[in-house]
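To whoever is covering the structure queue this week,

Two jobs came back overnight. Logging them here so there's a record in the thread.

Job A:
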Amino acid sequence: MTEAEQYMRRAIELAERGRHRVMPNPLVGCILVREDKVVAEGWHDHIGGLHAEQMAIADAESKGVATRGTTVYVTLEPCNHFGRTPPCTEALLWAGVSKVVIGAMDPNPTVRGDGARTLEESGVEVVTGVLEDECESQMKEFIHWCKERRPLVTLKASTDAKGRIDGDPSKPAVRFSSDSSLQMAHEIRADSMAILVGVDTVIRDDPSLTVRGPEIEPREQPKRVVVDPNDRIPKDCKLMVDSKAPTLLIQSSEHDSSRDEQHVERVVIPEHEIPIARILDMLGDMGVQSLLVEGGLDTWSRFLDSGLVDRVRVSVSPVELTHDGAQCFDLSVLEEHGFSIVSETEADGDKVTIWEIPEKR
């Protein structure tokens, strides 16, 4: 590994400190180097907070370290526009840095090379593409949304040992996923800007669809999306009465919303079977970069058939449910759609696998 790659690796490590809290912004890390020594570090910690470059400069100032003449290593091209904070290019030029080493170029239309170009035109040496693949992988959802204008889609399924996804409806519901597996599931929720289910899942399970465990504040809870063409959602279910997170109902025709709570929004896509592509285009237009599809079986099948699922997370429990007529999720369907296992983890007896399509990686 080259010296530049070692420094960029440290910047990637720092970027992880903002995980779950920076959305819709990407994870970004930054270090300042002088005479082969790291003199300051920064990362984008939370939405509305300092960008990584600004934090690194502030870190140097707090230590009494001069920034003029330093080399900057940053995982994403510095922005050159006003948003929640001033442009990072201005901060770097003010700091008097002599060189900026960039991991990934920013595909966002508000940047797209303008940050690097502004620095070069101002006399700063710019190097690009250092650990580019690793940097882009860390901010995969952001990169995907910028290029495709649709969210990156993760399908999440949990089954018993025989692939069943529910038990005997005449008996109390039985939780069959381990505590560790559930904790991992909430980590995936925390990495998502929206969570989608079909209305049958709401009727059967009355889920909250909120993140519990991982710290995501000050970012708000993920948007809860329900595909409900015929307005079958129970008016007293948690998604309709609990305002901890916004709820979006996708329906085929207009329905009475006069009695809905303020956190509930209805969107009409006037088709009997609402196309998955239309749903994703709409969510992309809303700025949703990452979507977690949690069920049920019909919803999973429709998303897989659309060819627009990017990865699948499956948790298989050693527990066997006692319901011969239960719906089953057959893992062979993933192979039929071109998915293969890229990672496998043991979670207190549960087997958790991540599946991706090779050409989409």
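Job B:
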Amino acid sequence: MNTSSRRNFLKALGGATALASFPTILKAATTGPRVIVVGGGFGGATAAKYLKHWSPDLNVTLIEPKAKYQSPIMSNLVLNGQLSMDQITFSYDALAQKYGVEVITDWVSGVDGVTQKVSLSSGAVLEYDRLILAPGITFNPVEGHDLDKVPHAWQSGEQVTMLQQQLEAMPAGGTFVMSIPAAPYRCPPGPYERACVIADYLKSNKPGSKVIVLDANADILVEKEIFGHAFDTTYAGIVEYHKEVVITGVDSDQLVVSTESMSDIKADVLNIIPEQSAGEIIKSAGLITVADRWAGVNPLSYESTMVNNIHVIGDSQGTGQPKAGHIANSEAKVCADAVIRLLNGGLPYAAPMTNSACYSPVSADTATWLTAVYGYDSATDSIQKVAGSGGSASTATKNNYEEMFVWSKSLFGDTFS
């Protein structure tokens, strides 16, 4: 894909042209079926928006405990001071005012799949005809890991701000240590991106400092040549990359990390990213079927294989698609389309496709990118990467860095505007 074609393609992702395979408008056969969406991230917010956009007669309720969403996408640029948290914070005003989504700021305390009711921490109980769960991730605990002292910063907001402040206070010549969990985890290139962004920041602001990367995986998972070149050449003498390193414990007071294969490592700033699983509501609702961590779903509709009329999208689903914001936005549109068809007494679209795209900053002014398309495979009744689809950058460039902001602005707008 040439530069011009890629730019046009990525501008379109998240916008109307990305929905060419979907009907323009579908309306429920009867007025007033109730769809509840739990979780206001890229999956949940997109699902709520497009349910109302495509089927205005639906009663759509979005339940999210936070009044505003702070994006993990682009949050590594908060760490080096290039963006503020306000620049990646979004409200649900447009969903409510423009599309008519009812937005409730509350925690979901329980789901009853038999009576089709959702209980809230406030005591309210809501009935649904279809329920879409998009709660994101939870973190598998690491012994001794205190999040108030050692942030993961893998959810945006306070955790990212804490890590940014710790980096700012780190002395010149200090050591930043970060861990990368075994796959699958949210945003496959994200940890390698973070290591590069922080190495670049330390190179300019904290001379003599180093970055130690402890990767539980057998090697760099994505864009190996670009990130490997960054570690070995661009940040030579700054980044130490170690593969197949499993974290066994953390001393959060002394900032020491223990592993299975290396001696204890002392840090000035420690960033532990634990292994991840589906959101707690997925577990409590009895929807976990994949690797004891993720929700098994029908690949055509994202309906749970365990409980009828409940759909799971985004990071918590277990289809094998990447866990990231852009593809969660894409899954949400497939799911919303399927829900409307099902409420009309029909069947889900038989050949849905999703796309994944991601830009990753490698320095203060260069970035890389990768993209892929996924489709339903009837032979295996699963979602598979479409042969020959997608691609990746050959090198990190300034042009990619500029396009990264076009891509993120399009995705943010498609989700929250």
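Note for Job B: The two ends are 29 Å apart (CA to CA).

Please reply-all if you pick these up so we don't duplicate work.
Q.
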